[in-house]
Predict the 3D structure of the following.
Amino acid sequence: MGRMGDVLAGIHSSWEFDTDSVLIRFERGIRTPKLFHVLGERRIPYEALSGAELLPGTRRGTVVLRLTPRVGADPLVDAAGSQLKERCDPYRLVLPADREVLAEYYLGELRSMLPADRSEPAERYLVDAPQAPLSFKGYDGKAAFDGRSVTFRWFWTGASSAKWKAGDQRFQVSELSDVEWRSPEVFNGYLRLLPHGTKEEQEKPEPEHDPFAIVFGLGYGLVHESLPLAAAVLAAVRAAEPASVRSLDKARCSIGGADEPVRSDPADIAERIRHLGELHSAGLLTDKEFAGKKAELLAEL
């Protein structure tokens, strides 16, 4: 591929070409999408690609060199589906129009490096996912991923009574079969985790009532915060899939089944007990449920 170390600099990123991959480095400018700030850089093996093309830019005086990843090669693309806006597509290199001839040269080089089986889905992820630990705040709770487990911790200001009754959640990667991410930039955005045994045709609760889901909302679960976490969890789930399918008959999803307890500060515990009291007074929790949840919260201290 040309000379190793060749660099093609664009408006929001630069591509450095190697013998087996292209290293995409994203700029940190004010006008650069925040998702690119979070990604920092990504190494894309040529075997992870199915195509390359040169397109007119959406901005006057620009052209776009775009790569097409193979199906199943990139967890970020899998998690996003087709929901990313064009300007946030990490496979687009926007160039000034006066670099079109140079772009055409690299387009020819890239096409010569495409794998013979590029039309076939990749058997495993070939592009690295964002690295844990990762976290973000949704409207009704906070999600965190440490590389082995995902925790959902509910906010008393936004979580439904169904989620408060279920309690904070911890999901081991080995318990999960898939991840659903619906962009916060559309109506009813959310992140939902699917445990083993969930069937595609199975009717799921609305996200706001589902303890397996964190609901987004205006200013919550932003793309650059929630999508990297979704991609990292998805990659970990896929990596653990063979072992988990053999070893698990069903998912264990409550915080009580976790290896380590989630710790909270005393002020937060007190506030959440107060909210439980309000639910109890309103008749949404029975005496037994209130006592049980209160004991669980006190046990976190």
Summary: The radius of gyration is 22 Å. Residues 223-247 form the longest helix (25 residues).
